[in-house]
Fold:
Amino acid sequence: MCYAKFASIIPISGSAYTYAYVAFGEFLAWIIGWDLIMEYAIGNIAVAISWSDYFSGFMNGIGIHIPEYCRVDYLSASRGYHTALERMAEGVSLSQLTYPVQEAYHAWMNAPRAGNIRLIADIPAFSIVVFICTLVYIGIYETKVAANTMVFIKISILLIIITVGSFYIDPANWSPFAPNGISGVLKGVSGVFFAYIGFDAISTTAEECRNREGICQEP
Structure:
């Protein structure tokens, strides 16, 4: 509600930076501006990689295998490969390592080469970023339609999970209530952070929005 009010009162681009500039002045707005740059850079990467994992899992589920070197980034593959070598030197088998380390190891080992350079890239993550950027470039209305469609699908899936899952509730699983302690709770909370990037990102396009008749309206 706060963001909706801000966007209608100050219908220019900038989101929280602009609102802080109007409310508190240039210095605090400067700090928030850099916060937003970090938020969008890191958040965009994390969400794209997460989407890539889900997409790859879905494709595997329907029998289409995406090679590991096409769904892992170069740095992660390199680090995972060396981690796997260190653990295997200690006597740990590859199958006993975590799935991300195994995936990185296979990506590094099986990747095609151009000279001494291994060709490794997270293609699904890159593709979804390009697709979203293209969609936003085409127009705000098209972006709104796509966003509404995705939100409808997500809410429908959540309702199905809640409805079906309600028949499998076992109160015995609630004890201990937080088996991983406060660190586990905070890790879960950190994931919720990404749910709040959306409306902040939408408000950055306030200056580009207009009503369906094309008449810009003053607040």
User: Anything to note?
Assistant: The radius of gyration is 22 Å.
